[in-house]
Amino acid sequence: MRNERDFSSADGAGAGQGVGARLPRKEDDRLMRGRGQFVADIRLAGLQDVAFVRSPLAHARIRAIDVPERYRANVFTAADLTGVNPIRAVSGLPGFKISEQPVLAVGKVRQVGELVAMCVAPTRAEAEDIAAAVTLDLEELPAVHDMRKAREAGSALVHEEWVDNVFLETNFEVDISSALDAPIKVTREISTARQCMSPLEGRGVVATFDQRLDQLTLYSAAQMPHITRSGLAECLGMEQGRIRVVSPDVGGGFGHKGILLPEEVCLSWLTMHRGHPVRWTEDRREHLTASSNCREHHYRITVYADRDGRLRGIDCEATVDSGAYSSYPFSACLEAAQVASILPGPYLMPAYRCRTFSVATNKCPILPYRGVARSGVCFALELMLDLVAVEAGLEPGEVRLRNLVRPEQMPFDNITKKHFDSGDYPEAMRRALASIDVEGVRARQRNGEMDGRRIGVGVSIYCEQAAHGTSVYSGWGIPMVPGHEQASARLTPDGGLELRVGVHSHGQSMETTLAQVAHEMLGVDTAKVRLILGDTAMTPYSTGTWGSRSMVMAGGAVAAACRELGERARRIGAKLLQHDPDAVVLQNGEVRGVNGSVTLREIAHTWYRRPQDLPVDVDPGGLEVTSGYKPQRDSGTFSYAAHAALVAVDCQLGEIEILDYVIVEDGGTLVNPMVVDGQIYGGLAQGIGTALYEEMPFDAAGQPLATTLADYLLPGPTEVPAPRLDHMETPSPYTQFGMKGIGEGGAIAPPAAIANAVNDALRPLGVELMQSPITPYRVVEAILARRDAERPAA
Amino acid sequence: MKPAPFGYVRPRDLPAALAALGEPEVSARIIAGGQSLGPMLNLRLVEPQLIVDITGLAELKQAERCGDELVLGACVTHADIEDGRVPDVTGGAMQRVAGSIAYRAVRNRGTVGGSLSHADPAADWVSALAAFGAKLTLRSLAGSRTLAMEAFVVGALESALRAGEIVETIHIPVMPASAHWGYFKACRKPGEFAHAIGAVMIDPSAGTARVVIGAIDSAPILIANPAELFGGRIGGDYKERFDARVADAILAKAGVASPAHRHIHVGVLQRAVREAAA
């Protein structure tokens, strides 16, 4: 499957420093020695700290905000923020209802943790003391806490100017009536919990104003600094040139850090108002209760199939709890509306219907989290396919093999017109089934376990659309549409290479992988490649790092810029070698001809220090190139993986142990397989969190109940097994080197594979779990419920 | 997550500590290891006027065997016990319990007296020490008194400590050679708080048992008539005679309404019993 294209690096693919090399991460020298610089590490003279007064209620009218006299100068409310606009993230999809999110609450609060007042003091502790002294007079309103009840007539309204609580309803249908006579028809309700993204580093903001440049500088833990700048400019009514957003080292993003925060707007205003730098560092309680929520889905789904397990159609109604506001730039409807387009995934089916509802509730806005809607749809569909297998009397793996798109169908447009670029999905599934040894598991199940537990095997497969661009996003009509991606490449006078890109790196290893791309194109030692990112003043505009796009898009752009730079260097080199330009080649960092060779370093020296030696027709652009890139098709790359889990279930305590885990992944051409492995490990950990641990419950008053990490459980080293990885490499026909985006995939499939394995283990008891996370309590509850149901009525 | 302002004293001896705690009109909290109080202060769940830091009190770090009991000062850490720096009179039970508390970083600082005073029903010592028949000496300026472990925790985060009173020492009886012990807990993750605890000390030759169900929403249950759990008598075959229905009824009577919760508790208790018999 390996791409046979001849990459120029002389040392060959898989070795050396170019595309395919398992190069150790350049950034680790800094990060692993504790020398990274994160927002909270920034110290500016005169810096003061901010703490916020947040709403203790989910839904209430603000009668009064009482600020003690002695703190009047330290406390700011919406009334003080003159000229500041609310955050507006509108979708152009028909019927979308607009919500305005005031950066400090105006009139009403619509979620616990909503910002009501901003308190500034020399230290965070003093700022929190001031915040504690501010009292709120709130008139509590009925909380809209359940997304399904929120759609019922008579529900309280989150936004009173709306007629209901639905941000957006969508409908998609292809010929569903043709499926209705299918012999197999399975219907279930399936739900996934609300989660918190929980990067190691939370959000954080330092804002300062540079009088000389007449420029606001916002240091923010952000993954899309250019988009943050656009959003800030809209809220503050400022020219974009008067704002610089710097995102230093960032400790994980996962989508959370792509969102424009009200805190960012507040602190920007505050530094300009007060004339000194200000800082806000999100604490873990703020993170859990007031921000960063994701993934709460509900499905009512019916799958139709023939007796042989072949799909006849899927009918689904999906509801997503979108929370109180539409977040910038992705909007409140991306998650739910995307469900309709991605639910069928890599499966063949002649009929399909999906209605989706993005529902407003009195909870934090739902934000896009690694895999966005995909982990939910994978959970829903893959659980259903196991039930089809039961009905058809087939192994679950066999049902997949009968329905997956086949390699000879590639490129393939599925029923929702998703364009699959390449791949062999059945092969990935076959390898996973063989590796987890389904037959061996079946034999073991027949014999029973010595320790009395029940074992089960589960599989799942997904596709991950990545680096999708203009043609996909223009239809959403949200504040951000990706176009060409740009990169700048500059040879320094001593032969080093500087790369400037507008994407960011917060775990993705771009400092390493983009250097590998540059090495591939120019032969420059990766140690001499410096990557500059995370700063709107120093990088080309980019929508940033999201949607598993950075390797494909920024990698393509770096390749384009380096190609052009290499060509210019080659022409200078030809002159230095006294050759015709056509008679020399650029190879391994040198321009070579029959007369000998000249290094890029010597060429750079010539351009900068000895221009008298340059050819007369030299390109006046010199050794600095900004170039742009877009794949031949911008409908996205499709990477995919088959996951297989073997679990043991303790039916007495409800505990689940993952005994074995297999991932067969195809991410196209891998620039650095070790980095890809790391992405998969991290994604798997998050997927296990979704499957078994992470849940942010709310009570009927809309209060978030997991307010510390003692209640919000994240998987740790003892919960994440070492998976067995197998890579396939089917290059994308549309991208530079055949790369595909792989950033999110690891997190998508584990909940489905693990739940299927648990259900496989419990099937002899007639027990099934259709809700994530699968907690010990839920396992025992389901077993007892089944036992009660079987007990003859008294 | 910064604490509200508070005063801080670090007395050099117990009388000075008791004097600080006895200040009228001052809300005071003792800090020992700070593993629970620290986060509670940062979350502003407690806002005492005065923190009395007792980590400097050498007399509370003593650990010695006196006759038929082990006397532990309140400031002995979980790690002191885990690492065997204190004498063992329980056939390894104390060491086992200590080693399974939270994470090593917590065990390094967390103290037995602090954990007991915090009276979290999900913590380990409140259940384990009740099973092992421990007693506590509480001291205040007014003098000292002794309470059985099971009488000390009166509810979730509620102890029998009176204002100005401190846990001074913990007295653990020497376990008879004929006694068996078992300690089992269910946690969502290793190191997290338990959602079910079973702690048992069973002496089949004497026909006695102390059986504790912990990590419920209120104080741990010391089962009043443990023989009922084993079909009316405690003998060498107690493992086989364990009656889950009796345990379930005890939990239901204690107000554990959810059958699934009871099921898990009963399962955990049964494993503690099995461990004792192993």
Question: What does it look like?
Answer:
The complex is a heterodimer of chains A (794) and B (278). With 794 residues, chain A is an alpha+beta fold. Among the domains of chain A are: 28-36 and 484-629, Aldehyde Oxidoreductase, domain 4, CATH 3.30.365; 370-456 and 635-790, Aldehyde Oxidoreductase, domain 4, CATH 3.30.365.10. Chain A has 17 helices and 33 strands. In chain A, a hairpin with a 5-residue loop joins β23 and β24 (497-501). The longest helix of chain A is centred in the last third of the chain and has 27 residues, at 550-576. In chain A, 58% of the residues are buried. Mean pLDDT of chain A is 96; it is low at 1-14. The N and C termini of chain B lie far apart (46 Å). Chain B has helices at residues 14-21, 37-42, 78-82, 93-99, 104-109, 112-118, 124-131, 149-152, 238-241, 244-253, 259-277; strands at residues 7-9, 28-31, 50-53, 63-66, 69-73, 135-140, 143-148, 153-155, 158-159, 166-173, 180-187, 194-203, 208-214, 221-222. Chain B has a 5-stranded antiparallel sheet. Chain B has 3 domains: 7-53, Uridine Diphospho-n-acetylenolpyruvylglucosamine Reductase, domain 2 (2-Layer Sandwich), CATH 3.30.43.10; 58-173, Uridine Diphospho-n-acetylenolpyruvylglucosamine Reductase, domain 3, CATH 3.30.465; 180-277, 2-Layer Sandwich (Enolase-like, domain 1). Chain B has 278 residues and is an alpha+beta fold. In chain B, 46% of the residues are buried. Chain B has 11 helices and 14 strands. Chain B is globular, with a radius of gyration of 19 Å. At the A-B interface, α2 and α17 of A face α11 of B.
